[in-house]
Prior knowledge:
By secondary structure, the protein is mostly helical. It has one domain (14-48, 57-121). The protein has helices at 12-47, 58-95, 104-121. Helix 1 runs antiparallel to helix 2 and helix 1 (12-47) runs parallel beside helix 3.
Amino acid sequence: MTFPRSPVVGSRLEQSAIRAFQNPAIDLANAILDSMKASENVILETFQNPSLTRRSLSNEKDAVTAAKGELLRARGKTRNELRKISDGLDMEQRKSNGKVNFPSEFMNLCLFMISLLQVGHF
């Protein structure tokens, strides 16, 4: 599976999907990376410098809370964009009595977005 790198490649359907998915995909990927980094910081702070005294992890907790909020926002935006495109595909299929032949690259792009959503869900 490949993710198209240029919006001038492929059919009109692929081009519109690439444009529609580009910003949500980047936002969601960044939110996933930020949430992983926040989790990493909590783990490192907890285990890297063990201490017998209690330490406040409020900064790390705030970072995790912020990352969670951004992840939920980006995931919702991506899900809505995928829903809009899927609804459009459904309408195209209905208009042509199910005889629309979607390019495999376009379907791969949709699968990529679904996979990204799944990663963002955990």
